[in-house]
């Protein structure tokens, strides 16, 4: 099968072997034949026949006459079946059983194959420390007399280095694996997988041309039955390149085709060796409305963590809405709180969110929530409340305390405060005029959706400063954005921006002037004059002052029918 994967005799032989299984009296011959058939199913089919085969053979393994060698052999293929279907926990469990049998009965020759399967599953399920330790043990056992083991080892090492973010080392290990695979005459069925690993490593390191070169080689040497899979991986590399180049529409078109094909094939694994890219593509697809239900199933099946900057469409475990009020949504369902006992843990969460949600100093939290307590008492109260909050949320890893700093996990938690801050940062960093025409309008629409002040009507003293700071930043940004929209002649949107800013701060004269200019420029002179009167009245009532000279001058220009400057 590995030397001539396209032989026309493979499928008939597999069918004949399957038909003979139940007629064989020797249980060891039966398990050996089933293991051979399982290997064929794993490599040459979509795996439909695997569950039935497992159901037929697993009871036989309980019989005492089944030899240790057959126990190990069967478990190796069973583990690989779980692995290729993304069931990494089951895969490592079965290989642990195989290792125990091999070590007990002196089957050292099979330990590398067992270790390889175990390490592959550990890497893909994110158990990097355990995978590192196992790879070190494997490296110590490598021998020049077993040259076929070396390319597989370096292939694994490249996978781990990729997961650890060591792009250069991932490329080096992948190149070494391919080189050794060529030298040792790796089975042709497996060579495309080694080449694809190298392509993915090069792409992650920024070498697009080198990545496409080796993926094209993988496609050329792949068997006809697998060629579509590698062509799809080439498309993914092109999508990544287009996203990096800002060619979003082209990337969306390609991605829609790739995901539709993957869905039609029932393929739930997504870039298992590049979870960072898988998460990025999933987030992009959700933002663009591409195969949303299927993408959410991919996120769940592959246990993808939210990438940096993932929007509200990502299926976060916990959503915290803290603008205009306070609401927690866990796994898609609103959380309901009724007892007073839950109030203090929720106050702690509110304050963490209000202070940014990242690296919030625990001492600052203690001082705000327990101002009258001494150091030891405040620390005890804080520790107890944090424990209760974690128990209340019931999401492992959602709230971390590290080196005296409290943080919400951005891979598990979304807050509307973070979303607002990202929109503000984009407007402040790039300016509304950055990018193509219409960029300012897009930013404006996101900011106009601002639902209200931080934590709504919460009256605790500790919310005043962060609430005022966020409101001031919001107003400043909207003022600048409105002015840019006026320059782009997007005055109707500018009116919305200024009005939204005034809802947040009805004493901001700059917003009143912007509103007056935009209304007058669109022919709404009466509304512009009404805006001035409201400004004058509120300044007089609240602050006891008159409008500034600049505001008065703008008012006179509008009264005179002049076009505002």
What attributes does this structure have?
mainly alpha; Serine Threonine Protein Phosphatase 5, Tetratricopeptide repeat; single chain; 565 residues; three-stranded antiparallel beta sheet; Arc Repressor Mutant, subunit A; 7 strands
How is the topology of this model organized?
Elements lengths: L9 H11 L6 H18 L5 H8 L10 H17 L3 H17 L6 H14 L3 H14 L7 H15 L3 H18 L6 H14 L3 H14 L5 H18 L3 H17 L10 H14 L3 H10 L16 E4 L5 E4 L2 E2 L8 H12 L5 E2 H8 L5 H19 L5 E4 L2 E4 L4 E3 H15 L8 H10 L15 H24 L3 H14 L4 H13 L3 H19 L5 H11 L6
Parallel strand pairs: 1-7
Antiparallel strand pairs: 1-2, 2-3, 4-6, 5-6
Summarize the amount of helix as a percent range. Answer: 55-70%
Q: Given the C-alpha coordinates, what overall shape results?
A: elongated
Named CATH topology of the domain at 1-141: Serine Threonine Protein Phosphatase 5, Tetratricopeptide repeat
Counting helices, strands and paired strands, the structural category is: mainly alpha
Rounded to the nearest angstrom, the radius of gyration is 31 Å
Overall description:
- The chain has 25 helices and 7 strands.
- Mean pLDDT is 89; it is low at 432-438.
- Among the domains are: 1-141, Serine Threonine Protein Phosphatase 5, Tetratricopeptide repeat (Alpha Horseshoe), CATH 1.25.40; 318-415, Winged helix-like DNA-binding domain superfamily/Winged helix DNA-binding domain (Arc Repressor Mutant, subunit A), CATH 1.10.10; 436-559, Tetratricopeptide repeat domain (Serine Threonine Protein Phosphatase 5, Tetratricopeptide repeat), CATH 1.25.40.10.
- It has a 4-stranded mixed sheet. Strands 4-6-5 form a 3-stranded antiparallel sheet.
- With 565 residues, it is mainly alpha-helical.
- The chain is 64% helix and 4% strand.
């Amino acid at each position: 099968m590995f030397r001539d994967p396209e032989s026309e005799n493979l499928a008939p032989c597999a069918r004949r072997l399957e038909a003979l299984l139940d007629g064989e009296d020797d249980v060891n011959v039966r398990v050996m034949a089933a293991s051979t058939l399982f290997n064929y199913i794993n490599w040459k089919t979509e795996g439909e026949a695997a569950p039935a085969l497992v159901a037929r053979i697993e009871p036989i393994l309980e019989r005492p006459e089944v030899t240790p060698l057959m126990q190990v052999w069967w478990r190796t293929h069973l583990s690989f079946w779980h692995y290729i279907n993304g069931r990494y926990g089951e895969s490592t469990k079965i290989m642990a059983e195989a290792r125990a049998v091999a070590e007990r009965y002196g089957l050292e020759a099979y330990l590398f194959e067992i270790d390889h399967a175990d390490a592959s599953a550990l890497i893909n399920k994110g158990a990097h420390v355990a995978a590192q330790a196992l790879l070190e043990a494997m490296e110590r056992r490598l021998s020049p007399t077993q040259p076929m083991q070396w390319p597989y080892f370096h292939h694994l090492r490249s996978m781990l280095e990729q997961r650890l973010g060591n792009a250069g080392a991932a490329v080096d290990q992948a190149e070494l694996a391919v080189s050794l695979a060529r030298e040792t005459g790796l089975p042709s069925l497996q060579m495309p997988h080694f080449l694809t690993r190298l392509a993915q490593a090069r792409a992650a390191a920024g070498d697009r041309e080198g990545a496409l070169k080796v993926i094209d080689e993988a496609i050329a040497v792949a068997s006809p039955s697998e060629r579509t899979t590698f062509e799809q991986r080439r498309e993914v590399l092109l999508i990544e390149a287009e996203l990096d180049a800002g060619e979003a529409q082209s990337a969306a078109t390609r991605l829609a085709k790739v995901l539709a094909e993957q869905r039609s094939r029932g393929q739930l694994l997504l870039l298992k060796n590049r979870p960072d890219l898988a998460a990025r593509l999933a987030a992009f697809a959700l933002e663009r409305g591409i195969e949303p239900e299927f993408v959410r199933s991919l996120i769940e099946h592959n246990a993808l963590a939210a990438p940096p900057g993932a929007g509200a469409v990502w299926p976060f475990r916990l959503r915290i809405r803290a603008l205009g009020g306070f609401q927690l949504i866990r796994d898609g369902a609103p959380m309901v709180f009724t007892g007073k006992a839950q109030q203090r843990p929720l106050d702690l969460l509110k304050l963490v969110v209000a202070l940014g949600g990242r690296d919030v100093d625990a001492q600052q939290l203690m001082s705000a929530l327990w101002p009258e307590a001494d150091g030891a008492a405040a620390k005890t109260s804080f520790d107890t409340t944090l424990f209760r909050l974690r128990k209340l949320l019931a999401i492992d890893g959602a709230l971390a305390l590290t080196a005296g700093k409290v943080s919400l996990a951005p891979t598990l938690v979304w807050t509307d405060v973070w979303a607002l801050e990202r929109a503000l940062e984009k407007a402040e960093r790039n300016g509304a005029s950055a990018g193509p025409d219409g960029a300012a309008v897009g930013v404006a629409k996101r900011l106009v959706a601002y639902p209200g002040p931080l934590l709504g009507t919460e009256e605790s003293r500790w919310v005043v400063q962060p609430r005022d700071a966020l409101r001031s930043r919001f107003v400043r940004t909207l003022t600048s954005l409105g002015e840019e929209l006026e320059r782009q002649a997007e005055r109707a949107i500018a009116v919305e921006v200024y009005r939204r800013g005034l809802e947040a701060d009805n004493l901001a004269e700059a917003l009143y002037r912007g509103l007056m200019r935009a209304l007058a420029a669109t022919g709404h002179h009466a509304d512009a004059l009404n805006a001035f009167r409201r400004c004058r009245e509120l300044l007089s009532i609240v602050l006891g002052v008159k409008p500034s000279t600049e505001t008065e001058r703008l008012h006179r220009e509008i009264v005179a029918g002049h076009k505002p400057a």
